[in-house]
TrEMBL record:
Species assigned in the record: Kutzneria albida DSM 43870
Pfam families found in the cross-reference section: IU_nuc_hydro
Keyword Lipoprotein: no
Protein name from the UniProt record: Inosine/uridine-preferring nucleoside hydrolase domain-containing protein
Keywords assigned: Glycosidase, Hydrolase
Length: 312
């Protein structure tokens, strides 16, 4: 079992991602660390505790991390998508946690786990990259203990929060730049261009109701997110951004990647938070690259996620 830490801001698609990891025998879920993002930190942390309880994984520690970006405050923008509590206002439908948040903060718990693990650990950041930037800045000696970062974030052709920026990168561009550009940690970036193509429709969601308690509870949490797609696109379904990234962390290679030079726009202008990906044929072949997920077998991926959730 490959050791895995999820750094998250649940968040409805984060909930699916956590459940997918909890259902997957390939990975040993060492911890879930939380960050501000879709909603404030108090909610994302409470949601992580409840989701692990739902999944029967109350032994997995939850540690709380950053409650704001590194440099520039960012107004919360995802209430309309994920609801006031991050889970469509329905977090109370999940089981009460039987334990409290870990005494260590997210960065210190990650550091302890990286030091103690028998092999390098995969970290799946599926929220703003603030905790990961702080980890790399405060414990650079632990970089070799990170097998890979599988990051949900960014966009090759524009964003979903502004025309230029995807939500996780937009939420803390300075942190994202530190992680993706300034540190030499192996990273796979799973951008919105691909996660959107992996969208699941109403029939896929209906299948969740034929499953066990976890699958059915996840479907209960979806109304706010589903309504936002109805409003914006007139389409009934969900984009499970974070679960797509977790599929890659669980089954490496399920997403097809391409190495591209990449930078993050940190100006305060309209392009703030953009991931600037150099796809020119004439780009410098020696420039450092980030692996960007560009394709997958769409139906096989949707089936993989569904079958794991139904088998719980
Ligand atoms: C990302 O932003 C959040 O709203 C989702 O949870 C996902 O991590 C998608 O842009
Ligand atoms: Ca998220």
């Amino acid at each position: 079992m490959a050791p895995l830490i999820i750094d998250t801001d649940p968040g409805i698609d984060d909930a699916f991602a956590i459940a997918l990891a909890a259902a997957s025998p390939e990975v040993d879920l060492l911890a879930v660390t939380t960050v501000f993002g879709n909603v404030p930190l108090a909610h994302t942390t409470a949601n992580a505790l409840r989701l692990l309880e739902l999944c029967g994984r109350g032994e997995v520690p939850v540690a709380a991390g950053a409650d704001r970006p590194l440099v520039h405050p960012q107004p919360y923008s995802a209430f309309r998508v994920h609801g006031e509590d991050g889970l469509s206002g329905l977090a109370h439908t999940l089981p009460e946690p039987s334990r409290d948040v870990h005494e260590l903060g997210a960065v210190e718990l990650m550091a302890d786990l990286l030091r103690a693990a028998a092999e390098p650990v995969v970290i799946a950041p599926i929220g703003p990259l603030t905790n990961i930037a702080l980890l790399l800045a405060t414990h650079p000696e632990l970089k070799p203990r990170i097998a890979r970062l599988v990051i949900m974030g960014g966009g090759l052709d524009g964003g979903n929060t502004t025309s230029a920026a995807e939500f996780n990168i937009w939420s803390d561009p300075e942190a994202a730049r530190r992680v993706l550009v300034e540190e030499d940690v192996p990273a796979t970036l799973v951008p919105v261009d691909l996660t959107r193509r992996c969208a699941v429709d109403a029939a896929w969601l209906d299948r969740l109701d034929t499953g066990g308690a976890v699958a059915r509870a996840l479907n209960v949490l979806t109304p706010s997110y589903r309504a936002s797609y109805q409003r914006s696109l007139g389409w009934d379904g969900l984009v499970l951004h974070d679960a797509v990234a977790l599929a890659e962390a669980i089954r490496p290679g399920i997403l097809h990647t391409q190495g591209y030079p990449l930078d993050v726009e940190c100006s305060l202008g309209p392009s703030r938070g953009a991931t600037v990906v150099d796809r020119r044929l004439s780009r410098d072949p020696e420039a450092p690259t980030v692996d960007v997920a560009v394709d997958t077998e769409l139906d096989a991926l949707r089936t993989f996620i569904l079958e794991r959730l139904l088998a719980f």
